Amino acid sequence: MKYIKLFTLLAVLFIGTNLQAQTSEKDVTIIELTQVEGEFETNNLSLTPGKYQFRIVNKDVDKDLGFVIQKAEDAGKDVMKTALKDSFSSELVKKGEAQYTGVVNLTSGSYVYSCPLNPTPHYKIEVK
């Protein structure tokens, strides 16, 4: 329950400052990730360094969902303190809907993505 309150607060803070339905920035790759009950359909990502925006889709999950990216070494730690800048979804993702993150700059390294509300496992993002 505390994650829901924390995530809702964070989502509200980020909406007005840095998130849009789509980005107008150049050289940004949009990646769509679909959540079903308890998991993402895509388990791991292998990317090159660059700017990314994630589109999170709620596929028939009867509760609001979210999204966050952390460095791999921070997996399992408080997402409110360890989330990458702009990596939260813009709003809670309702059943049958989609939301975007801000533009996330990923450099070489290991990251994880998850939904702290669903909740899902931590899935790997390798950036090389």
From TrEMBL:
InterPro entries: Cupredoxin. Residues 1-21 form the signal peptide. It comes from the Bacteria. Keywords: Signal. Gene3D superfamilies: Cupredoxins - blue copper proteins. This is EfeO-type cupredoxin-like domain-containing protein. The lineage of its organism: Bacteria, Pseudomonadati, Bacteroidota, Saprospiria, Saprospirales.
